[in-house]
Amino acid sequence: MKFVFDTGVKLVTSRLSRGFVLLRRPEGKMCNELKTKVLRLLPANCNGPLSLKAPHTEILSRTVQALKEGQVVGVPTDTIYGLACLAQNRDAIKKVYDIKGRNQQKPLAICVGEIPDIYKYCDVKVEKALLEDLLPGPVTLVFERAEVLNKDLNPFTKLVGVRIPDHPFMRRLCQMCEEPLALTSANISSQTSTVEVNEFQDLWPKLAVVVDGGPIGDLNRLGSTVVDLSVPSRYRIIRPGCAFSATVDVLEHKYGLSEDSGGK
Questions:
Q1: Which of 122, 183, 212, 240 qualifies as a FRET site for 78, CA 20 to 30 Å off?
Q2: What is the DSSP-derived secondary structure letter of residue 193?
Q3: How far is CA 16 from the centre of its chain?
Q4: Is 234 buried (19+), middle (13-18) or exposed (0-12) by CB count in 10 A?
Q5: What is the DSSP pairing of strand 109-111 with strand 159-163?
Q6: 94-103: which pairs have CB atoms within 8 A and are 24 or more residues apart?
């Protein structure tokens, strides 16, 4: 099997915030039987704002196209690598479960680009300032779902987790799709989460695009901290994740929320 890599012998001068530039080379031959594209973002030392005019949009455009076609893609986030598809696409949701071998009673989170997007798909019962303190960041917030959200996404629960990763590529990807992404870890269900793109290489043949954002860091392998905020004035930690202490500190000391140790 062969994969098509865009790896970089030509430096494109445009930069992404938090340190990414796009390196690419002219398109090579692609195996007729395997359509997976591996697109590589390489780190650079830069702290400027995300440019919307730069050639790095080539990778974004290819990824958006694959998503709009109902495909599943592999993407970097601020915590671990993930599998993503359009949350409003029933068939794409099924593909994610099939690729992971995931129990269909286990929910998928959604990923959006901006805090106002959360209000479109969730019934938010906390102050907007709380969202702004935690997002973007390595936290998944769980709320009651809005009617507009695809009923085939987690049909067994009225709740949904929502993420805004602190990662410029993912945020811009959501903005360009103009709808939420369903997001889950890039690994076979029950196996270790992945923080380097090669760690889920066995899944590549099932993905339309794999975006290589480089190593994320082993400290983030726990994934995002998942916290249920669906009950007013209370919180419940569903998964401690990699930002547990900082998240609880914000919830309790700044906003006065009390821990709810009971289930829903």
A1: 122
A2: P
A3: 17
A4: middle
A5: parallel
A6: 95/70, 95/71, 95/206, 96/72, 96/182, 96/184, 99/72, 99/203, 99/206, 99/207, 100/184, 100/187, 100/188, 100/189, 101/188, 101/189, 102/184, 102/189, 103/189
Q: Which two structure tokens, joined as six digits, stand for 241?
A: 């994740």
Report the alpha-carbon distance of residue 239 to residue 36 in Å, rounded: 32
Q: What is the pLDDT of residues 51-99, one digit of tens each?
A: 444 546 889 999 999 999 999 999 999 999 999 999 999 999 999 999 9
CA dihedral 216, 42, 135, 148 (to 10 degrees): -100
What's the predicted TM-score (pTM) here? 0.84
Question: How many Cβ atoms are within 10 Å of 53's Cβ, its own excluded?
Answer: 7
Measured in residues, the chain has a length of 264
